[in-house]
Design a protein that fits this description.
The protein is mainly α.
Length: 163
């Protein structure tokens, strides 16, 4: 294959990765909410995922620099917490979990490239798909940890008030 052919194939690869990522994001608001009311193996924070860990990674700075497209396809923007009552926090956490799954699935959009690419071009697609999504996952997973903590505090306050 000529260098121009590889360039065209690379452009097609990027279009496939972007198109599949958009398709995943577009369907996400229609996913059942029942799977988002608790952490799954995809969204459960790892033991090292603490607020301090995400501060070291610069999650807050990333959040101010990266776009937020959660509301584009009918979901909810995750730019701001919609309220501080328990119900609002839990709904917002569900949206954060949905976005985590969207970005984790989007990291796999390079896999179809294996069917028609040379290995090294598929690897380049993997680097692109994973590299684009990692900053968003840093923000979202950090928000997941922070919101879960806020919800625990709100529940504790409700228990104390009810006692």
């Amino acid at each position: 294959m000529t260098p121009g052919g590889y360039a065209l194939l690379g452009a097609i690869d990027i279009a496939i990765i972007a198109g599949l990522s958009v398709a995943i994001g577009a369907t996400a608001p229609h996913w059942p909410k029942r799977g988002l009311d608790h952490d799954s193996f995809l969204t459960r924070p790892a033991p090292w995922e603490t607020p301090a860990y995400f501060r070291r990674l610069g999650a807050a700075q990333l959040a101010t620099r990266l776009p937020e497209y959660g509301a584009v396809f009918g979901g909810q923007s995750k730019r701001d917490v919609p309220g501080h009552d328990l119900e609002s926090l839990e709904a917002y956490l569900g949206e954060v979990r949905r976005a985590i799954v969207v970005h984790e699935l989007s990291m796999l959009t390079w896999l179809p490239l294996l069917a028609f690419n040379p290995w090294w071009l598929s690897l380049a697609g993997a680097v692109i798909a994973v590299g684009v999504n990692i900053p968003f996952l840093i923000i979202l997973r950090g928000n997941n940890v922070r919101l879960a903590r806020m919800i625990r505090i709100a529940r504790d306050r409700e228990k104390e008030a009810g006692s």
